[in-house]
Structures are given as C-alpha cells and as structure tokens.
From TrEMBL:
UniProt keyword terms in alphabetical order: DNA-binding, Transcription, Transcription regulation
GO MF annotation, one: DNA binding
Record-linked Pfam families: Penicillinase_R
The organism of origin for this protein: Streptomyces mobaraensis
UniProt KW Transcription keyword: yes
Keyword match Hydrolase: no
UniProt-listed SUPFAM superfamilies: Winged helix' DNA-binding domain (SSF46785)
Any one Gene Ontology BP term: negative regulation of DNA-templated transcription
Protein family: Belongs to the BlaI transcriptional regulatory family.
Name of this chain's protein: BlaI/MecI/CopY family transcriptional regulator
Superkingdom to which the source organism belongs: Bacteria
C-alpha cells in the first residue's frame, strides 16, 4: 500500500440487502413447520453463514416478537409466530 493509504479490509462478494438475512431465516423456519435450533437453521440456509451469525439473527427476530423460543438441550428451538 502506498503512503497515506489506510489499511482497510475489503470484503469480497455481494452483501445482502438490509433485512434479507432475517427474511431468509424466517422463511426457513416457516418451511420447516417445526421449531429449529440455530444449528438446524444454519443447515437450512444457503451459503456459508457462521453459527454465531445465525444465533444473532434469531435473537433479533425473537426480540422483535416475530419468533417464539423454547429450551431444547443447551440451545433454544425457534419457531415463527
């Protein structure tokens, strides 16, 4: 890098539109028709999302009262309202 050029990481690939990931997660839960854990939701989604990303999206949707959750083992199982 040249002098005066900030060292920034460049993300390659396409970013999803705002809210698109939440819509994908919600659609996966509706297709399943049964409550899913974050790991199960991760398997249903296209692309390579990390477990942490899926958990964050599920928590946000639960906070918006779009999802319900019930304990299942060491995780929660989420379902669309």
């Amino acid at each position: 890098m040249g002098a005066g050029t900030p060292a920034t990481a460049v993300r390659r690939g396409r970013r999803r539109a705002s809210g698109a990931l939440e819509c994908e997660v919600l659609a996966a839960l509706r297709r399943a028709g049964t409550p899913l854990t974050p790991r199960e939701v991760q398997r249903e989604l296209p692309g390579a999302l990390t477990y942490c990303t899926v958990v964050i999206i599920l928590r946000r949707l639960h906070g918006k009262r779009v999802l319900t959750r019930t304990p299942r083992g060491r995780a929660y199982a989420y379902a669309a309202v």
